[in-house]
């Protein structure tokens, strides 16, 4: 009798869970429809604690709600019904446009969407026109940027990827480029359709035509001949890093601004979005600094603001990159000629010095080195810091970093994990720029050691696109402010 009763109970439990999940799936489907409508018709983007809700995946939407749990160890997962109710209210307001709404922050702070909307002066909201974007170079970062740009629902506003520029190549190059975009050994298959248009020398990616242009020199291209004008060039090649070299892009017809995805020299500003992007002004050439600089600078800023940093050392345990050799061979740089897949390779990093460019108050206070290790993606920065004000404990410092990660100001740049099982592959594909590993934090008097994980491809690319959005003059009203 007991076994029969237990079986009935478990059967009912299974049925209850299935029924609940089916109900959530239906709500997610309805939510996705509203999200697409808001994005396409009103240029309104909805996020959950800074993370974009995927408008093509019911599973991702539900998983993100479960994972969010108000980003607090004592909180319950956010109910998708609450998000749906907020988005319905948002969709009912035809006045709102060009806005980025974080429903996670609104729910966490018990905010009412109507009150949040009333606080906005809709008369001052500008419509974001389309900005043509050209990716100059189609390597690791170029392809990640393409995935990020074209995984979103199609829209006639905002950043519009119009062309990719690569060096002249042999027959079959177009098919190979498309294949590299479609299949990736690290990030998996592209969530969408990719085909080639041989007649027009381009690719059709998720229904959008992207021209492929072959050129040896940036100044020789006439982009207007391809229907591209006032374009933002995102240079992913790393070949030119000064004003003379990058200025070649501005000599081409149809180009307005240039964004470099590498540290720049000379007078070009190295910008970390969220930290010093307010310094850009009318600059036509800007650098997005390096992946490591972007990963550590936000955390260094909040730590410096709270505790003060006397000095410190940054050690990066960095995934190997394309500039290293698979097996031992000649390389112009010290040690990098040795096999990347067989060795840990000590090398230099400019990240510590570059922090001072984005955060002048730390200029000259940090040293740095890097160790390239045999993993293809996700790196780890170790911040060894001498602080002016000693934290009470490692737990106190972690609690401070958790609050920063949960704040609307830093939620896109700083994330936080206290998992005892976290390893590097857990962070492949994360769009957060740097993830503080609370389990590894060490505090001894006024000395603190903080470990920060980062996907040196995807995390960095999200920062590049935030910077590109600003350079294009695209502005969104933030809700909540």
Describe the SSE topology.
Elements: H1 2-42, E1 44-48, E2 51-52, H2 58-68, H3 80-91, E3 99-102, H4 103-108, H5 113-118, E4 130-136, H6 140-151, E5 158-166, H7 173-182, E6 194-197, E7 202-205, E8 208-214, E9 231-235, H8 243-251, E10 255-260, E11 269-270, E12 285-287, H9 291-307, E13 309-319, E14 345-347, H10 351-358, E15 366-373, E16 379-387, H11 394-406, E17 414-417, E18 434-437, E19 442-444, E20 447-454, H12 458-471, E21 477-479
Parallel strand pairs: 1-3, 3-21, 4-5, 4-9, 5-8, 9-10, 10-12, 11-12, 13-15, 17-18
Antiparallel strand pairs: 1-2, 6-7, 7-8, 13-16, 14-15, 16-20, 18-20, 19-20
Helix pairs in contact: 1-2, 1-3, 6-12, 9-10, 9-12
Description:
- With 481 residues, the protein is an alpha/beta fold.
- The chain folds into three domains: 2-124, no CATH class; 130-262, Rossmann fold (3-Layer(aba) Sandwich), CATH 3.40.50; 291-459, 2-Layer Sandwich (Dihydrodipicolinate Reductase, domain 2), CATH 3.30.360.10.
- Helices cover 33% and strands 23% of the residues.
- The chain is built from twelve helices and 21 strands.
- It has helices at 2-42, 58-68, 80-91, 103-108, 113-118, 140-151, 173-182, 243-251, 291-307, 351-358, 394-406, 458-471, and strands spanning 44-48, 51-52, 99-102, 130-136, 158-166, 194-197, 202-205, 208-214, 231-235, 255-260, 269-270, 285-287, 309-319, 345-347, 366-373, 379-387, 414-417, 434-437, 442-444, 447-454, 477-479.
- Strands 6-7-8-5-4-9-10-12-11 form a nine-stranded mixed sheet, with helices on both faces. Strands 13, 14, 15, 16, 17, 18, 19 and 20 form an eight-stranded mixed sheet that branches.
- Strand 4 (130-136), helix 6 (140-151) and strand 5 form a beta-alpha-beta unit.
- Helix 9 (291-307) packs across helix 12 (458-471).
- The longest helix is centred in the first third of the chain and has 41 residues, at 2-42.
- It is globular and about 70 Å long.
- The mean pLDDT is 90.
- This is Glyceraldehyde-3-phosphate dehydrogenase.
- Its EC number is 1.2.1.12.
